[in-house]
Amino acid sequence: MTGTLAAGLDYVDLNFQGKPEIIATVVLHGPQGVALIDPGPSTTLESLRAALKNKGVEVRDVRQLLLTHIHLDHAGATGTLVRENPSIEVFVHERGAPHMADPTRLLASATRLYGDGNMQELWGEFIAVPASNLRLLTGGETISAAGRELQVAYTPGHASHHVSYFDGSSRIAFVGDTAGIRRGGAVYVMPPTPPPDIDLEAWRDSEERILAWDPETLFLTHFGPFHGARLQFQQLRANLDTWSRIVIRLIADGRLSETERQDAFVDEAQRELRRAVGEQEADQYGRAGRLDYSWQGLARYWRKRSAPGVG
């Protein structure tokens, strides 16, 4: 699946694990070359190559990779692409850059989350990017990519190293995971809240930075373009509030083990998701953002906050 957002601005479906509408990569192309936003994991590289080839593009044509953040589903293929084309510039937030140059800690953290046996199947190789290829961002910059001028905003909340990009000519904001997970025609916006650095206050500030651009369209890595930015964020915030109330209640229940708390959260969140989108679609949402990981991220956040009633 591919789609056109504007002249010289497309997106492709990476068909993660053979399933549609899980991970998208944005393709900016013009006479000045090609840039990609969030190239995805190495396990979907063949899908990416095939989609680019259909557009008459090869990896050697890619000039820049723009990362919203360094999680493996967004940035895992970066080092492999740079190895193939050493001239590629990689734009990444300054907090994420050290982990692209030396992914040892990143991969150790991901292995704890996903399990050693799942890492290769889900994500494939994640190799280091030479420091000379990295272009560090802090937020507030204007960068040039494939002939377009893109504004950059620092947008933590989902991750402390998250940035978003805005193309003023098309009025599209490329927001990674900051506006949540939403698929196809579904109205449900699922919060992606894995550990380790969920920060709901920072997330609200990031929302305001994105809305200050007054975008006509939000582009979500999971998955695709959506109009109505304010409504999107309102729905995301409402679901974050609902999940937070569940998490706070479960943490406060001293009768439950941690496993029982996680299972109870997943059951409640899954029931709500199924009511909103149906059982089959709920399963696809789960491929883009696992509910057990969302429990872990929110539980960590609320325990750090020492919320009232939380032990």
Q: Your description of this structure?
A:
The chain has 311 residues and is α/β, with parallel strands linked by helices. The protein has two domains: 2-232, Ribonuclease Z/Hydroxyacylglutathione hydrolase-like (Metallo-beta-lactamase, Chain A); 236-305. Helix content is 41%, strand content 20%. It has eleven helices and 13 strands. It has helices at 45-54, 72-75, 78-84, 97-101, 104-114, 116-123, 200-212, 229-252, 258-277, 279-288, 291-305; strands spanning 2-6, 9-13, 24-30, 33-37, 62-66, 89-93, 134-137, 142-145, 148-154, 163-167, 172-174, 217-220, 224-227. The chain has a seven-stranded mixed sheet with strand order 1-2-3-4-5-6-7. Strands 8-9-10-11-12-13 form a six-stranded mixed sheet. The longest helix is centred in the last third of the chain and has 24 residues, at 229-252.
**Mean pLDDT, as a whole number?**
94
Query: How large is the share of residues in beta strands?
Result: 15-25%
Q: Order of helices and strands, N to C?
A: EEEEHEHHEHHHEEEEEHEEHHHH
Shape: globular
| Strand elements, count | 13
Q: Could you name the CATH homologous superfamily of the largest domain?
A: Ribonuclease Z/Hydroxyacylglutathione hydrolase-like
User: What's the structural domain tally?
Assistant: 2
Strand order within the widest beta sheet: 1-2-3-4-5-6-7
In percent, how helical is the residue content? 40-55%
Query: How does the helix and strand content classify structurally?
Result: alpha/beta
Largest beta-sheet characterization: 7 strands, mixed
- Rounded radius of gyration (Å): 19 Å
Q: What descriptive keywords fit this protein?
A:
6-stranded mixed β-sheet; 311 residues; disordered C terminus; 7-stranded mixed β-sheet; Metallo-beta-lactamase, Chain A
